[in-house]
Amino acid sequence: MEEAEMATESRGTEGGTRPKVTITAIAQEAGVSVPTVSRVVNGRSDVSPETRARVEDLLRIHGYRRRQSAPGDRAALVDLVFNDLDSPWAVEIIRGVEEIAHRDGVGTVVSAIHGRAGSARQWLKNLRARASDGVILVTSVLEPVVHEELRRLNVPIVVVDPAGSPALEAPTIGATNWAGGMAATEHLLSLGHRRIGLIAGPARLLCSRARLDGHRAALEAAGVPFDPALVAQGDFYHESGFHGCDQLMDSDSPPTAIFASSDQMALGAIEALRRRGLRVPEDVSIVGFDDLPEVRWSAPPLTTVRQPLADMGKLAARTVLRQARGEEIESPRVELATQLVVRASTAPPTEG
Amino acid sequence: MEEAEMATESRGTEGGTRPKVTITAIAQEAGVSVPTVSRVVNGRSDVSPETRARVEDLLRIHGYRRRQSAPGDRAALVDLVFNDLDSPWAVEIIRGVEEIAHRDGVGTVVSAIHGRAGSARQWLKNLRARASDGVILVTSVLEPVVHEELRRLNVPIVVVDPAGSPALEAPTIGATNWAGGMAATEHLLSLGHRRIGLIAGPARLLCSRARLDGHRAALEAAGVPFDPALVAQGDFYHESGFHGCDQLMDSDSPPTAIFASSDQMALGAIEALRRRGLRVPEDVSIVGFDDLPEVRWSAPPLTTVRQPLADMGKLAARTVLRQARGEEIESPRVELATQLVVRASTAPPTEG
């Protein structure tokens, strides 16, 4: 066993850009045996937590990478981690990641950590037990302790659509949320709308903030004052779009158009309008955000801002696999373009 | 290396129910060296295809399982294989599988093989290179050569919602499609509908046939003759529901209600009716099949037959992990109950 591990290590460091470091040197510095370092490298559980932490810190400091560029010692797996697998857009991202990984002979391990520390720790434990060439985190708000453990594992990480200030030193892949928010509201302005409601996403997510800022920038560029009474707070899910729409329509001066900053909220808003006996787009125009496959078939088909979710998944997979091969990543932050898709849910306002 | 592999084997067979067989015996019978058998067992690529086939056949004949019940030699991975990752119901099944596997410390590797032999072979190659505790195939129509290779790999297999006559000797997990089809049409009959259209799924899939037969059984139980002119052929996707609905409504005696045998086809049908200026449910009632999360928010919210997709995923994961531990499976064929969910897309017909 030890021989195989040593071979793995020397093969790995030869091809890499990091300084050469041997398990023997790490063992000496940590004051433990070579087999103990091997056990840590191979993610085995029969090492005390203190020893593991000390060895992993040294491995990291010396730039020792568990998984290296030699084909023989690749795990042939990437991890794709969601908070929850409860949205149709998850499958879009999975599809993109899987397409690239599959071609590269790499399996895509899909996990949900439900924003719970216990679940995230279980995932880390699983990851440690079986190894991974890289981790793609999707809008994951991880606890600091999980960040720290991921850093220790020293596995390449890419973050898709970061939820907040990225605390991990990892490349991030997003969409042009600000430009998309601006395009949505510009479209409604160009149709002649002046009272435009916004159903915003969760305030803690940067993408929500960017969409709101784009909406506001479009209004101000058109000389339309931004009215906080025309903003309802949502959480990206259907039900919050339903209630957000009701709130906006119940106000003293209801909007003639609503930009719902997710497709699911847009569908909820359309249902709220239907229950009020209002037609889309004759009475109220609706613009969504995401362009999920099913909104081509909503009643009416939804005008929305296309977020290239599958392409984001593909780029995330390419990036993490390049990192796993020890290649340099040009840009730590990439935003793919969003695009307005005009369908049947928007029209000029009835009264000019 | 060889020592480690031999240890794996003897640990595995001690706990199992299969007759004890050693790598040495297999090597003698195949006329190859012990290291060659080890290489085959460990899925390494440096063995000729002929030798690999001979050794794998012997391993299978003697009931040698690559992955055994001892915790130490589990791959800690299950494979979940779709034809395509292009439907919101895929994420429901992924969620169910992931929940069970995650708890068990097992990662869920999601793949799409696009019904193409090349892609399926790439997946088999990936699987062979990294090992797996079990494979869950979702409505996958695999080529015979892929069947044969999967058999050779000797890894536990479970099939979810089998697409046709299951050619693999594997447990299958489905839903009560016949009872669901019957419940959908009984609901429409109970509202007073007599001319009930059906948009059927792909004829090659058993689940489509079962839903059609259930629909027909409900009609005949109510004394309503089955009229082939009221059946349109779909493929489970939105667009076929749109065109299928148009076809039914264009007939000489259009239906007052339509059972679309997937939710996506039901949404396509609703859009077709909207474009014709017809209201759901006032002019035409629609029942779907699946109960995808988003149809709670379609306009109007869809009456549908709930297929417990996440539960099917959970049961598939439990079954394949039990097989991986060498446990017996009680029933090779399980159908989970479907359930009618009445929402706002169905009502009594306008004229009697």
TrEMBL record, chains A, B:
Record keywords, A-Z: DNA-binding, Transcription, Transcription regulation
SUPFAM superfamilies: lambda repressor-like DNA-binding domains (SSF47413), Periplasmic binding protein-like I (SSF53822)
Ranges for domain HTH lacI-type: 21-75
GO molecular function terms attached to this record: DNA-binding transcription factor activity; transcription cis-regulatory region binding
Protein name: HTH lacI-type domain-containing protein
UniProt source species: Streptomyces malaysiensis
